[in-house]
Amino acid sequence: MSKRKAKDAPLPVGKCISEVQDILRKRLCHQQLPDTPEGVEAQHKHLLELLKRTAVHGESNSVLIVGPRGSGKTMLLKCVLRDLLEEKEVERNLLQVHLNGLLQTDDRIALQEMTRQLHLENVVGDKVFGSFAENLSFLLEALKKGDRSSSRPVLFVLDEFDLFAHHKNQTLLYNLFDVSQSAQAPVAVVGVTCRLDVLELLEKRVKSRFSHRQIHLLSNPTFSQYLERVQTQLSLQDDFPDKTFAQDWNASVKTLCEDKSVEDALQRHYNSSKNFRSNHMLLMLCLSRVSVAKPAIKPADLLEASKMCLIDAQANMLHGLSILELCLIIAMKHLNDVYEGEPFNLQMVHNEFKKFLQRKSNSMYNFEQPVIMKAFEHLQQLEMIRPVDSSSVKTQREYQLMRLMLDNTQVMEALQKYPQCPTDVKQWAMSAYG
Amino acid sequence: MKYFTRLRVRRVYKWRGKPISFNRKLKTCEYASLDISVEGLPRVTVIKTGQHILIEGDDEDNPYVAKVIRLYGDENGKQKKVVVQWFVRVSEVPLSKLKLLGREPHPQEIFYYQGRSCEDEVDAESILRPVKVQRLDGAAPFPDSDDQDTLYVKLSWDSKTFKSVDSAQVDSDLSPDSSSSPPPCSRSSLPPSTPCSHPAGTPASRHTRRALPTPDLAIMRRAAPGEVRYSKATMSAGKPSTAEAESMHSATKRSASKCLSAKRRNAFARTPGIRKKLELSSPEKKSVIAEDHLNQLLDEGPESALMLAQRLSSSPPQAVLLKHSLTPLRKNLKSSVLLNKMCLSEINSSPSSDHSTRATTPSKKREPQSLKEPALEMLAEVDNETSPMLPITATPRSSKRKSAQLVSSRIRKQLNLLDDQQDLNSDGEDEDEFVPSKRELQSSSEDDEDDDGGEKEAALDSDDEVLVKKGRHAAAGCRTPRSKQRTRTSTRTPRRTPRRTPNRKITPGTPRTPHRATPSIPCRLRPAQQPANVLEEARLRLHVSSVPESLPCREQEFQDIYSFVESKIVDGTGGCMYISGVPGTGKTATVHEVMRCLQHATDMDEISPFHFIEINGMKMTDPHQAYVQILQKLTGQKATADHAAALLEKRFSNPAPRKESTVLLVDELDLLWTRKQNVMYNLFDWPTRRHAHLVVLTIANTMDLPERIMINRVASRLGLTRLSFQPYSFKQLQQIITSRLNKVKAFEEDALQLVSRKVAALSGDARRCLDICRRATEICEHSAADTSATGLVGMSHVMDALNEMFSSAYITAIKCVSVQEQLFLRAIIAEFRRLGLEEATFQQVFVQHQALCRVEGLQPVSVSEGLAVCQRLGACRLLLLEPSRLGVLQRVRLNVSQDDVLYALKSD
């Protein structure tokens, strides 16, 4: 089959669907960079200029990219690097070192990684690096030998920058910033962090050496922009193989976004969080519901997905408890109400439970002490309750002080949905005092 | 001593005629001429006053040139000294200064030396032969002759400038010479093929090697005990006359004032004068040693053809070794190779010789110094073993009968051994102060010459290294010979020469230490672009990294530090200074500026040379690494922290005289704090030692650091010399920017003032100021596209930059968070108000949140969602949270003031 033919001829629906899922998943899972980062054009320009100056003019710089989680910091950086490397001269010159605070947990590991990424270990042949101290002086010497115009510029990207600030003495940061502020090999230090107070973490002399450039990614899209973005995220490009399917799909996405209930659901998400990562989670759930039988995203899908996203995890878990366990939880709730959040122990809960049983004459819930103990332990394992402090292991289990990890609303909500909940238990739960 | 009987070119130096005068005070006799004869050859070379001579030096191919002024010897004829007027070869002039010449120097051009930094007294035994020197007029072309023996003088050199030669003075010098200039004595023995083996070399090179008459063994022994000891040590060092001559030669290049005492002590400090400094680190000198070896091994005179053949054959490996053999170990090998070669060609006993050379080396290395005597004996035995093969080459006559040679050589050896051991015993005490560790630290294995040299002077070695380092770092020509004087007994000197080479070889990048291969960032393909417009130019100048021409606004501090350091250097004492100031006030920059000025002063010969090293507490992983770094920068050695501390301790407390001061800059002093504070203690204690000549400048941020973190004995040693750098005032900041910009018109006056006032009010950090200005130029550049009013950086741009850097992002961040997050913040404030505390659990806040949701008409969120909202706020540190596993029980605090939150939320 020639390619052209395949393009013209309508593909079977199954193939189209898998194609769509492939494209959209790539988009939603951040495997594909957008052509232009949205909403951060100014920051993009700033960063690009800055890195270009390092790459082309050999000017040392340091900058921090700060923004809340999911605001597109890494995306911005990746876009900038992609655009930067399109220039031939830059591509051949720029050396990159990528470090992550979660991986390089101390300076020693970070230095080794830097040396590896700079391919400096070739210089020393097969000799394994000796001490940390040697490693440091080795790297510093390497950087010191360069000068502005003749050395290749090095780009250091420090992901989770705030974690590097917790390294001992901040040696790595001091030295990187010091290099960037002295006539050595040109470097650009780009820190990526979500902490707004990151500068306060830096020691004063480290801080003084930092250029204090911060690029804040605090995008504030309005709801209409948010909605628009959902639509573009779901829409197919023109280069989709099957044109008619693409048109149908795009039309269905358009109607979806115009649906009132969908809009409400999205508004709720928008209210909760404006970042695109949570948005993408929602869309992923919708996308996975698309099948050959249902080749479009329906409003119902989105509502369902939205429900799934917003569901309360712990209230959900309550549904799976036994009646006894539920009763214990209710007893704890009452204790909480009575004693205003003071911790309790098993014995108190059991007493509360027994009070409830005494009022009800039937002995339907008459359990042995060990059974109740077992149920109590199960709740602890589920982390519905937790010991006040772990050090009190010595005390007997019955008397160990506990706290309830649930909110009253969660308990009541779970009770409403609990399958075949006995009415007396329900009433007990709703009554003001046990 | 194993090479004691080894054969070498022997030159005999004798006075000709009676002394013409006798100096009672110095107890010296002056002579009119000196005879140099080569043993086994009938020829005698006569050296007269006024004649030009070649003097043995580091560089075999280019021996030093000098004119004999005076010849004298001491009473008993042990020492023969020559007072000379030096000439400098082209190769001895620093390359950087060679430019001053303004033309291509002629290879055979020499310069009349007028500097004061070389001693004009040399040992007669370092004289190689006479040479012809011709004076040319400044304009006259160099004669186009093939005579490589003639050298030409046009200019004089005083280590700074070239001047035209005072013709009268030089002519008078030259006239006797040109008339006499006898053919070099060795010439006759030269086979015709020699020139081609060293086509580029000056003729001297040829003669130095083989035809060189060296003092006869017999003569040496005839001499008085001191001299015998000396010569024997030399001989045993396996490098007899060359080494000795060289050391003597250099030793005598001392200031005349010292010559008496020096003579008494017979000290042969091998201190190449300033003019020789160039060669300190040049690889050429290895050739000297290589050739020396050859000389020792080779026979003289009649066998010269054979020797030549050997030399030729050995030259390729030698050439290779010159490049790579940076360790003495190699040298040993080399010598053994040479030995081997010789033996193979001449006799059958080569295995033994080879073996002996190798065997001695390791034994020497291992032997601790305290075991000097046993080691000696052992070596002596080794010598005996080796001796059989050595006499074979001794003289042409004896080479026919091995057994006879063997016997005679043994007899000779025994005789020498007896003498030698006596000497050593007497010597032993002096040497006790040297620690064995120093030797190991030399890392280079000892040469085979030092078998009796447990007494190797570590201090000297380290000195050497300092010199080497200096040679590498400092601008050329600032070395004065004074700094290199050493008091040392003559027995040790001969060994210095061999030692020197290994030391010099410990330079970074030796193949032996691969991890010290200096790494570097690869070069870019094309050099970085140059600034294209005014703003880019300004940006370049404003970058903190650019070194300004001058440091404005720190004149007083500069003066204080300068005078402090200068006085210490001039006095040859030590001291500490503590410099404090907040970051970015120019502490390190000022000290560097001072050092630059002092270096300059050294170049101008105003103060004696010193050694500047710098360590930074932040650039080391552990306070004890300070020792390692200091040692490495001082001597180029690598050692562990403990070892380095011990070495430095020895170095700074060692009485071995060392004129050169060391200036140590310790940046970020507070990081050198340890629990016992021994690092700081040592740093401040060393300057108080008499022999340390150490000036320590320490820098830290806090003014009261000594009082706060130092225990009394440390603070006391630091002393009270303190200097505090005040934060820059706005006027100073403005001046700094203006001086940096240096007439590049890129800023409006008001804009500059705004920046400096703002920064001065906040921190007085010059770095900050420069960064803001740089950012402002960028903003200006971006905005220039549309307005382009003046092209200058104006107030608005600076304001933008200031806002970018100083404004807190919290308020913007709060404005940008989602509705639920804002509600949560409000709920927190509401809960705080209700509780009257600045802290609440999530559960409490959540209740408020639910209520607020209802008020706002929003659907209440679930607990999970609420927790997610809370976590997001916590991640960007608008809130401070307990670990999230506490769930609803985690406590919440605001990281922003309540007013800020309310302000941010209200303006919405």
TrEMBL record, chain A:
Pfam families the record matches: AAA_16 (PF13191), ORC4_C (PF14629)
GO biological process terms held by the UniProt record: DNA replication initiation
SUPFAM superfamilies referenced in this protein's UniProt entry, alphabetically: P-loop containing nucleoside triphosphate hydrolases
Domain of life, per lineage: Eukaryota
Gene Ontology terms for molecular function: ATP binding; DNA replication origin binding
Keyword Secreted on entry: no
Key words of the record: ATP-binding, DNA replication, DNA-binding, Nucleotide-binding, Nucleus
CDD domains per UniProt: AAA
Subcellular location: Nucleus
Subcellular location, principal: nucleus
Boundaries of every AAA+ ATPase domain copy: 59-220
GO cellular component: cytoplasm; nuclear origin of replication recognition complex
Quaternary assembly: Component of ORC, a complex composed of at least 6 subunits: ORC1, ORC2, ORC3, ORC4, ORC5 and ORC6. ORC is regulated in a cell-cycle dependent manner. It is sequentially assembled at the exit from anaphase of mitosis and disassembled as cells enter S phase. Interacts with DBF4. Interacts with POLQ.
Similarity-based family: Belongs to the ORC4 family.
Role description: Component of the origin recognition complex (ORC) that binds origins of replication.
Annotated protein name in UniProt: Origin recognition complex subunit 4
Native species: Pogonophryne albipinna
UniProtKB/TrEMBL annotation, chain B:
Main location (coarse class): nucleus
Listed SUPFAM superfamilies: P-loop containing nucleoside triphosphate hydrolases
Protein family per UniProt: Belongs to the ORC1 family.
Bias-annotated ranges (Low complexity): 172-197
Swiss-Prot/TrEMBL keywords: ATP-binding, DNA replication, DNA-binding, Magnesium, Metal-binding, Nucleotide-binding, Nucleus, Phosphoprotein
Compositionally biased residues, Basic residues: 481-503
Function text: Component of the origin recognition complex (ORC) that binds origins of replication. DNA-binding is ATP-dependent, however specific DNA sequences that define origins of replication have not been identified so far. ORC is required to assemble the pre-replication complex necessary to initiate DNA replication.
Subunit structure: Component of ORC, a complex composed of at least 6 subunits: ORC1, ORC2, ORC3, ORC4, ORC5 and ORC6. ORC is regulated in a cell-cycle dependent manner. It is sequentially assembled at the exit from anaphase of mitosis and disassembled as cells enter S phase. Interacts with CDC6 and KAT7/HBO1. Interacts with LRWD1 predominantly during the G1 phase and with less affinity during mitosis, when phosphorylated. ORC is composed of six subunits.
Region of interest (Disordered), residue spans: 167-256, 347-523
The species this protein was found in: Pogonophryne albipinna
GO molecular function: ATP binding; ATP hydrolysis activity; chromatin binding; DNA replication origin binding; metal ion binding
Biological process, per Gene Ontology: DNA replication initiation; mitotic DNA replication checkpoint signaling
Entry GO terms, CC: nuclear origin of replication recognition complex
InterPro entries per record: AAA+_ATPase, AAA_lid_10, ATPase_AAA_core, BAH_dom, BAH_sf, Cdc6_C, ORC1/CDC6, P-loop_NTPase
Organism lineage string: Eukaryota, Metazoa, Chordata, Craniata, Vertebrata
The keyword Metal-binding is annotated on this UniProt entry: yes
Protein location: Nucleus
PROSITE patterns referenced in this protein's UniProt entry, alphabetically: BAH
Domain BAH residues, every copy: 45-168
Stretches with biased composition (Acidic residues): 420-434, 445-465
Comp. bias intervals (Polar residues): 347-362
The name this protein goes by in its record: Origin recognition complex subunit 1
SMART domains to which the protein is assigned, alphabetical: AAA, BAH, Cdc6_C
